[in-house]
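Q: How do we represent a protein-ligand complex in a form that can be generated token by token?
A: Start from the inputs.
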Amino acid sequence: MSTTLTTRRFLTHAAALAAALVLAACGKQEPPPAPAAPAAAPAAAPAPAPAKVYTVGTDAAYAPFELQNEKGEIVGFSVDLLNAVAAKGGFQVKYVNTPWEGIFNALQQGDRDLLISSITITDERKQTMDFSAPYFDAVQLIAVKDGSKVAKFDDLKTLKVGVQTGTTGDDVVTKLQGKNSTLVKRFESTPLALKELEAGGVDAVVADNGVVINYVANNTAAKFRTVSDSAFAPEQYGIAVKKGNAELLDKINKGLADVRADGTYQQVYAKYFGATK
Ligand code: ARG
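Then emit the structure tokens for the protein with arginine bound:
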């Protein structure tokens, strides 16, 4: 190695060190600049920063939106949609099965960067998290046994009703029966509530229409019937991020707008729900 080069390298390092000292003296929080590349290799392109992979929380017991396949992979409408959104929005995602009961807390704590879990956008939830533009329309639907006399939501006032804890289904039934009702039976997942209906432990289940319809169609032996009621307010699903995470929310919303504009949304919708939207 030539003396000139060694000297030059020394000078480069000395300059970097001086810069770091100045920054430190200013009390700045920035880390010191990385040591300058050896002067002998000026043409080397800087390595691209590894793309951040966002951790997605989803309660994967909610077919056909989010579920685990035989291999334990998280799949469904929400996954196909978010994968397409991420590709357009220029970010990467990895899915982590996250029980509904702790899902909002996981976002709040920073254990998850975003949530896609058929989450209804509500004013109450908007206080503690930010939502993307709506991506799916939903409404509550009642499931009962074939022989049941239930014809409308109001008929559930004095019946045992199964719901998933902390969902909008829980909200509407709790409102109908009163906060202290002992007839609301809360389950940690919607399929568990529907199993209990099959077993005869509850008289009805109230949950999101898409999930109830899917369950009834795939469990014909359970002999369920569904009851809709215009008393149920329309709901819309949104992707949730931690309050104030505008950077990620912008990417999500951009991706959502793009997949709607280029027909990908409609394709994914058709894959799971037949008709196009
Ligand atoms: N849409 C309903 C809500 O936001 C139920 C969502 C439940 N989602 C799930 N993956 N378990 O309350």
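The first strand starts at residue 53 and ends at 58. Residues 59, 62, 66, 100, 117-120, 164, 167-168, 190, 208 surround arginine (CB under 6 Å).
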